[in-house]
Amino acid sequence: MKKLFVFLIMVAAILTYDVVQSEQGSIIVYSSMEQYRTEELQKQLNEQFPDKNILVMYVSTAKSAAKIKVEQENSDADIVVGLETSYLEKVKDSLQDLSGYQTHEYVDGLTLADNDNKYITWERQAGAFIINKEVLKKHHLPVPQTYEDLLDSQYRNLIAMPDPKTSGTGYFFYKSIMNTKGDQEGLAYFDALEKNIKTFTESGSGPVKLLIQGEVAIGLGLTFQAIDEINSGSPFEIVYPPQGSPYSLTGTAMIKGKNSKEVQEVFDYIANDFFLYDKENFSPEQVLKKQKNKIKGYPQNIPYADMHGISEIKEKERLLELWKY
Questions:
Q1: Does the keyword Plastid apply (predicted)?
Q2: Per residue in 264-276, pLDDT tens?
Q3: Alpha-carbon span 166 to 158, nearest angstrom
Q4: Alpha-carbon distance 280 to 286, whole Å?
Q5: Burial grade of 235 (CB within 10 A; 0-12, 13-18, 19 or more)
Q6: Left, alpha or beta for 185 (phi > 0: left; psi -120 to 50: alpha)?
Q7: 199: Cβ contacts below 8 Å, ≥ 6 apart
Q8: What is the SS3 assignment for the chain?
């Protein structure tokens, strides 16, 4: 993990955005959200600020963090959106202090103060067992209810999980087990689970794609992606293990020294107006005490897993050093 981050920093030091830098007065937003959400943000900013030159750029989480780490206050970016909190913690010294900033009413543990006044919680990305009922029926198999059920040899080559080294989704499943079982038992669990895994996918959406294709019966994947497929007619079912739904967090922030009046106006719109739109229509897992959800069939009162340490980058690096698949 450390070697990867160092490599990304080296790449970030080389990469430049000449076109962006040549545009005087432009406001640059780095988005690590999915493409369709990034495009919607660009569309709404264009409509809200027709006289401002705002460019929303998709930049992956690791690359965004690496660039900010290298460039610090000289970053091309003025604002970051949807960046994993473990990486925000890594670059926290390069973020603008937001003390006194008025935010929505967040649930306990996710407030601005909980984030040392450096970034605002953007979303909770949560997961579950996603079941292709038709594939299970074809193999005459029961629906698994627990992590231990997944170890049964009857599910051999019928399970997909994202690789924790390349996917935040894979990492939060890994972290949840390690929090519950501890290092020794947790690693022993994955030694046993690996025998039933058809593939560890590179991306977090990989298991859902394999479920759609009917190549696996069980995917450890993102709940919101599963609901989207269910609403499109896929024969999927969502199961939450007794430990609860594992999750990771992302945030939004301003780069230190980039808090001009113009940038603050854009940040205010993103952190308040677009934030609500995004939660209601795209990423509805609860982060606010009072939160609306317009997505058909989305689970209510979701039980969340114990995810202590999910935002700690050193803990993530330590655990990824132990991962061997």
A1: no
A2: 999 999 999 999 9
A3: 21
A4: 10
A5: middle
A6: alpha
A7: 160, 206, 210
A8: CHHHHHHHHHHHHHCCCHHHHHCCCCEEEEECCCHHHHHHHHHHHHHHCCCCCEEEEECCHHHHHHHHHHHHHHCCCCEEEEEEHHHHHHCHHHECCCCCCCCCCECCCCCCHHHCCCCEEEEEEEEEEEEEHHHHHHCCCCCCCCCCHHHCHHHCCCEEEECCCCCHHHHHHHHHHHHHHHHHHHHHHHHHHHHHEEEEECCCCHHHHHHHHCCCCEEEEEHHHHHHHHHCCCCEEEECCCCCECEEEEEEEEECCCCCHHHHHHHHHHHHHHHHHHHHHCCCCCCECCCCCCCCCCCCCCCECCCCCCCCHHHHHHHHHHCCC
Q: Of 146, 178, 193, 186, which Cα lies nearest the Cα of 307?
A: 178
The CATH class of the 2-124+248-300 domain is alpha beta
The single-letter code of the amino acid at 186 is G
- pTM as predicted: 0.85
Contact 122, 275 (CB under 8 A): yes
Domain at 126-247+305-309+314-322, CATH homologous superfamily: Periplasmic binding protein-like II (3.40.190.10)
Please identify every stretch of the chain with a pLDDT value under 50, giving residue numbers as ranges.
11-23
Six token digits for residue 19 = 């076109």
Strands 159-162 and 27-31: unpaired
**Average pLDDT in the chain:** 92
- Distance between alpha carbon 166 and the CA centroid of its chain, in Å? 12
- How much is the pLDDT for 278? 96
